[in-house]
Amino acid sequence: MKTVFLNHIYANSAEDVWRVTTDFGCLRQAVRGLLSFEGLSEGSLHEGQVLDVKVSMFGVLPAQPYRMELIAFDPKNLTFNLKEFGMGVKHWQHRLRIVPHANGAELIDEIEIEAGWRTGMITA
């Protein structure tokens, strides 16, 4: 298992970054060319959500089942925690939080990944 940490600063309010981060349409745009989704609902992430979708790498590999379970969702504190698996990924624990920053907002991702021999490729 490997843990990846990502931090990004945006020149927008924390609330605006939260709205974009939890919007499925924005997710599709952010991963365009890398991943494509079948069955991803419209709208935004919300409490108690479980998403069963199919995901294709690069839009050319066959779509594979993938599950995202929202474990914790706190729009007041701008945090969520997702448990994901499928497509050869055994464990993908995604913790996200957004905090105010002097230049706008900071998005902080912590992602634990276990995908067997694929872990190194996924986390590179």
Largest sheet: 7 strands, antiparallel
Q: What is the terminal-to-terminal distance?
A: 13 Å
Count every helix, treating DSSP H or I runs of 4 or more residues as helices. 3
CATH fold naming: Alpha-D-Glucose-1,6-Bisphosphate, Chain A, domain 4
Number of domains: 1
Overall helicity? 10-25%
What does this structure look like?
The protein is built from three helices and seven strands. The protein has 124 residues and is an alpha+beta fold. The chain has one domain (2-123): START domain (Alpha-D-Glucose-1,6-Bisphosphate, Chain A, domain 4, 2-Layer Sandwich). It has a seven-stranded antiparallel β-sheet. A hairpin with a 2-residue loop joins strand 5 (79-86) and strand 6 (89-101).
